[in-house]
């Protein structure tokens, strides 16, 4: 008989797990707090790597759908200083890491899952090894396996370990520019088809531009800021003028070629304080409960690996469940060992980059790192 499985969270990890299980005759139930697939904007674009993100989509049977949306020219990359001096450029080079918008990734995963599997508007407030308790008042129990794919602030994590995320020292402000070719032609030309990262490491400031689909550009102003800066700074995050005034002061001595984004973005900004779990984390495996994705190894985005490892976790756990449906405890342990091993280098790199990009000499060291990474790719 198929095991009865609960997945908490319909992010990339939870959806990929549900998709692979359904494809292999095991129907889980996914509990998601969002009221619907379109309840909130999903954010920017993600590059998916061959052995992890892309392999997981292949296990979902979604390679053709991925290729429909994948932007291979999105791999272009420019690195500059705050004056706009370009120190490093990759153009028209295959790095094996095409970009896809989060909305599109979510859509293709959702379309691969039969109706009724996902229960929207179910916000988990607490859990035991047997029971899920929801904000809406009801509870669910009787599962052979509970998977926490509920991201940074997982309510399932405490069933595996008592470690909490800590603030990384960096906060990002996400800005969006639309219809860029007609409304923001200068910035559109500067950014090009892929990513444009500008560093003022000495000042703890970065502007990270990212081409998205639909003639859209996202820009993240990442800054070294104290914990709770978003709340304590006095910025009114509903007021574009208040946001612009604060960012203008933070980026006052940047070239207008780049800082013009502060004047030109559409006025709605998402503020993202970045949290992380320790780069190495493991726990004694449980018999009926596990966690995957950010719930298990939250890291800052500076290695570009979070979603890739999350998707790989889903693939590895699904494979173990499908191979050993009668030995869930064994499946959990095998998948966790793979997950811990797969996540530790990525998490260490993300943490190293979190320090390095915002300290003196960070720009030059980042250049060295990218050059080494490209050499390695060439060798393969
Ligand atoms: C600014 C930024 C940029 C990033 N850029 C990149 C990048 O370029 N490349 C990359 O690889 N990674 C990137 N990441 C990381 C990436 O977004 C995550 O690693 C990835 O989304 C993890 O997927 P997940 O499914 O584990 O968790 P999530 O995407 O967080 O999904 C968790 C899901 O669980 C739901 N949920 C949460 N709590 C509950 C609850 N109590 N009850 C029910 N449902 C719940 C949420 O609504 C959500 O749908 C970035 C992250 C940030 C913040």
UniProtKB/TrEMBL annotation:
UniProt-listed InterPro entries:
FAD-bd (IPR002938), FAD/NAD-bd_sf (IPR036188)
Keyword Oxidoreductase in annotation: yes
Q: Which residues form the FAD-binding domain?
A: 5-324
* Alphabetically ordered keywords of this record: FAD, Flavoprotein, Monooxygenase, Oxidoreductase
Keyword Flavoprotein annotated: yes
Report a single Gene Ontology molecular function.
Answer: FAD binding
Q: Where are the transmembrane segments?
A: none
Tell me which PANTHER family the record gives: FAD DEPENDENT OXIDOREDUCTASE DOMAIN-CONTAINING PROTEIN, MONOOXYGENASE ASQM-RELATED
Write down what this protein is called: FAD-binding domain-containing protein
């Amino acid at each position: 008989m198929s095991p009865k499985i609960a997945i908490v969270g319909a992010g990339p990890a939870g959806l990929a797990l549900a998709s692979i299980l359904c494809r292999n005759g095991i129907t889980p139930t996914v509990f998601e707090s969002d009221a619907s697939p379109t309840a909130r904007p999903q954010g920017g674009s993600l590059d998916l790597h061959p052995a992890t993100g892309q392999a997981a989509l292949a296990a979902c049977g979604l390679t053709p759908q991925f290729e429909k949306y994948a932007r291979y020219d999105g791999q272009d990359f420019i690195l500059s200083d705050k004056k706009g001096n370009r120190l490093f450029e990759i153009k028209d080079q295959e790095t094996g890491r095409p970009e896809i918008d989060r909305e599109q990734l979510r859509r293709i995963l959702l379309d691969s899952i039969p109706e009724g599997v996902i229960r929207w508007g179910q916000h988990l407030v607490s859990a035991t090894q047997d029971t899920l308790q929801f904000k809406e008042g009801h509870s669910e129990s009787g599962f052979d396996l509970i998977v926490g794919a509920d991201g940074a602030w997982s309510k399932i994590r405490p069933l595996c370990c008592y470690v909490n995320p800590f603030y990384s020292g960096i906060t990002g402000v996400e800005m969006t520019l639309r219809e860029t070719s007609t409304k923001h032609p200068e910035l559109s030309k500067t950014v090009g088809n892929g990513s444009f990262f500008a560093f003022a490491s000495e000042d703890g400031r970065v502007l990270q531009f990212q081409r998205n689909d639909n003639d859209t550009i996202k820009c993240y102003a990442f800054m070294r800021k104290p914990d709770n800066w978003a709340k304590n700074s006095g910025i009114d995050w509903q007021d574009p003028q208040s946001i612009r005034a604060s960012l203008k002061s933070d980026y006052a001595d940047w070239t207008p070629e780049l800082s013009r984004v502060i004047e030109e973005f559409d006025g709605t900004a998402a503020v993202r304080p970045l949290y992380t779990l320790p780069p190495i984390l493991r726990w004694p495996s449980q018999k009926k409960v596990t966690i995957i994705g950010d719930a298990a190894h939250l890291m800052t985005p500076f290695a570009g690996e979070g979603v890739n490892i999350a998707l790989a976790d889903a693939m590895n756990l699904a494979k173990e469940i499908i191979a050993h449906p009668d030995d869930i405890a064994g499946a959990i342990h095998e998948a966790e060992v793979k997950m811990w091993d797969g996540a530790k280098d990525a998490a260490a790199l993300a943490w190293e980059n979190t320090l390095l990009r915002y300290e003196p000499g960070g720009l030059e060291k980042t250049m060295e790192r990218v050059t080494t990474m490209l050499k390695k790719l060439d060798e393969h």
